[in-house]
Amino acid sequence: MKQTKQPVKTDETQNQRDFALGKTNWILIGVSVFMIILGFLLMTGGKSGSVFNPDIFSTRRITVGPMISLFGFLSMFFSIMWRNKKEDENK
């Protein structure tokens, strides 16, 4: 039988494999955080004062902003749970 030499794992390659989340996960998490921040920014705005401002009932603040934030939180869950098949095959 022919014996093959196994490559010696250095500390650098070992540390790269010990991460719980891969590169794809971090990119998806970044997109999710951006969506959450965008949703909260869409919900803000307008003056606060003693005068009634009907702009607080705009569609952007009541519907669009919260929905984008909700999708951001949902995508955050999926981006953490995402498992890259290519990385699993290498292990």
Poorly predicted regions: none
Global Rg? 23 Å
- Spatial shape: rod-shaped
Residues in helices, as a percent range: 55-70%
Instruction: Give the structural class.
Output: mainly alpha
- Report the order of strands and helices: HHHH
Largest sheet: none
Q: What fraction strand?
A: under 5%
Number of strands: 0
Describe this structure in words.
The chain has helices spanning about 10-15, 25-45, 60-80, 85-90. By secondary structure, it is mainly α. It has a domain at about 20-45 and about 55-90. The longest helix has 23 residues, at about 60-80. The protein is rod-shaped and about 85 Å long. The two termini are about 25 Å apart.
Provide the descriptors you would attach to this structure in a database record.
91 residues, mainly alpha, 0% strand, rod-shaped, transmembrane helix
Give a quick precis of the structure.
By secondary structure, this protein is mainly alpha-helical.
